[in-house]
Write the structure tokens for this entry.
Amino acid sequence: MNLLQEGAITFEAEGVFFNPRMSLNRDIGIAMAKSLGIREYLDALSASGIRGLRVSLEAGVRTVILNDVSQSAYQCILRNISRNDLSGCEAICCNANALMHLRHFETVDLDPFGSPSPFLPAAARSAQSFLFITATDTAPLCGAHLKSGVRKYMAFPVKTDYHREMGARILLGLAARELARRDKAMVPLLTHATDHYVRTYLRLEHGAKMADRCLEKMGYIEHCIKCGCFKAASDPRPENCAACGSPTILAGPLWLGQIQDSQVISRAASQISLQNKNSKKLLEVCGSEADLPLYYDHHRICRRLGITPKKADQVVDALREAGWRASRTHFTGVGIKTDADARDVEEILMLL
Ligand SMILES: C[S@@+](CC[C@H](N)C(=O)[O-])C[C@H]1O[C@@H](n2cnc3c(N)ncnc32)[C@H](O)[C@@H]1O
Ligand SMILES: [Zn+2]
């Protein structure tokens, strides 16, 4: 038997799915569970149970339910529960959708193969206070597989420089709409795109009025293929590009509201040990992102202008000095979030 170790848990994963490269995703999940003071947690698609077991032991969450439809995963979860003396954890072998239609849980975590879309309607019904979602189908989300994106997320992705954030916002858009059908609203606390996946943490609010207000934060992105300009729009009626006059194309519907809550993120970051540099750094950048949709790839703009790109921090400082809002983004090291338009960004880059 090959025993593995992650965080405080010793576990086996033979014959079940386990991806050690997702440990950063789980580390951050544990920090979020701890800092949010979560009391009940459903790991709806558990595999070995590693995620839920860590939430139980490391975040001290009292009631943890570990579910997987596969018999062999269920048996593996039972052995891992007893191996770690976590007899308070409940193991269930059920279709996650059936379970989430039968029971409510304070917190639901979805970590499926590929798209969470087949589980979102039931999760939106079941989750009472928090919904955590991982999506590993970045090709449909980010516009590389257009038809699949439309089928899974009921939204048109467009392949652009800012495709990683657009994908995250398409996922958030579907979550907002599924929750609204249940008279619930969402407040995104932390959203990150890392490696091959998007991960988001949502706090939920109840009531039709809250849901209506939440849906007001849905919209579209008008994108100019010719010059790379983009702008958020509430209507699906594309206009010509304000900068170059070319026709624009639309991405969406997608979430245009806030995707990070800097206070929650800084509390979560304080739960992560100094040794865990990648997770800490990621949270630091997410927490300092300007609340503005999407970003410009300043390297690409510089290439078009035929100039040498400066450091991203210098570009951010120059934009701020010129009176614009600006920040870096965790979505890419060459991305600049700003309320300046493409022309203003070009002007600043030329002056640097
Ligand atoms: C990506 S793995 C989960 C990984 C795990 N959360 C982790 O952090 O290691 C997805 C799991 O979902 C299970 N699964 C697939 N469809 C399911 C369903 N309808 N209901 C419950 N479990 C399901 C699979 O058996 C698989 O173990
Ligand atoms: Zn244009």
